[in-house]
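User: Hey, my collaborator sent me this sequence without any context and asked if I could get a structure. I don't really work with proteins. Can you help?
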Amino acid sequence: MQQVLSRISLGLRDRSLTLAFCGKSLAIALAVAGGVAIAGCEPAEPPGATAQEQAAIATIQDIVASPVSVSLAQTEPEPAQVNQTMAYGDQIRTADQALAEVGLVTGAVFRIGGDAALTLRPSQLQLDAGQMITWVEGTGSEPVDIVTPAGIAGIRGTTVFVNIADDPSAPVEIFSWEGEVAFRLTEGGEEVILTSGEQLFVSPGEQSIEALRQQVQPLDRATAEQRLQNNPLINGFSQPIPTRDAIEATVDELQ
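Assistant: No problem. I've predicted the 3D structure and written it out in structure-token form, which is a compact way to encode the shape of the chain:
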């Protein structure tokens, strides 16, 4: 009889241990499941690109002839369209006789042509090839820098012309149609100031800012008048350039 009672006692103890273990296992399973459910309810992480990089900061305002292409978000080039928006990092290109005009939300406007390639950067227009004329509209406009292979031209309410020849060893031309242009060789470096009607040629690799200061020369009136009449970036669009009056005043004052 005593042996039977002992066996019954051992059986009850084993069953209680089994129930306790199962209870703990169930609690752990419920906790894990609850954690998964809570994690699934958490908001997804925002995409890696910042809002500033994705925001439209420029609009193609006019296209004259073709081809004009854009590379948006580092994708393959596609035909550009009037009213198409662009963001930082996007590139616009022209070829042959094609011209394009782009307006930025900062107030800067530029026209490009002559096998041009330009990339939008924060506070910068990176011109790698071709010709460009740039001006700033509005009194509250932000300054903008034109980055070229030879240096950086800062415009502050100015109309400036930049020409990068097909030959990579040829000098880059900077010409102020009206207002001041501050040219520097490197970011934060010393500046060369060009005033209305003045021109500067800068060879890639130039390192002497003092030598460049000696090379700033005013354009003669006859040459400036010829440029004004024949430049497609000024005359090739349906709308006249807004700073035309100031440009003509500059030409009139040249010798």
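In plain terms: Confidence is low (pLDDT under 50) at residues 1-53. You can pass these tokens on to your collaborator as they are.
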